[in-house]
Amino acid sequence: MIAIDKTLNSDDLANVCFVCDLQRCKGACCVEGDAGAPLEEPEIAELEDNIDYIRPFMRPEGIEIVEELGVFDYDAHGHYVTPLIHGAECAFVVFSDDGIAACAIEKAWEAGKSSFRKPVSCHLYPVRISKYNDFDAVNYHQWHVCQPALELGKRLNVPVYKFLRDSLIRKYGEQWYASLCETIEKQNSKK
Q1: CA distance 91 to 83
Q2: What ranges do the domains of the chain cover?
Q3: Which of 25, 51, 78, 121 is the least buried, fewest Cβ under 10 Å from its Cβ?
Q4: For the chain, first and last CA: distance in Å?
Q5: 60-119, pLDDT tens digit by residue?
């Protein structure tokens, strides 16, 4: 484990290589699983504030479920998540002509229409954060749908923490990320 500020970070962040390979996985992380994307409470307000800008980028069935349930739902543990369409894909998922899943929230942000990029849990994937009273546990989440990302990451020699540079900085800040890099580099120099 790597301790940085109030986080305990799995060694997998440094040891596992990972680069999303959307041509192969087709964005399966947005359409498979048993719950929507985890949401932090402040993100619900951001989604509500921006839903009118996001809606034009959504599919009709996603709009329908958001109008029925709102911008969030609860998972089996009572945590906030994005709603699902028919218990399957995220309500905010859209598909390109070649069948690759993308995010309507992020498309609205990229178009300059919305101030909310996407849930930080999506931006951080394959990292998942478990919150405890005194610290966050930052762990790599292994999932079979990401096998192509493991293969590409290994081929390109890109560890998870480098692949997720922008999202880790978004979550914890530049100084935290610099400390993480420094700690990993020190550990690697001792090997």
Answers
A1: 6
A2: 1-18+126-191, 26-122
A3: 78
A4: 16
A5: 999 999 999 999 999 999 999 999 998 888 999 999 888 888 999 999 999 999 999 999
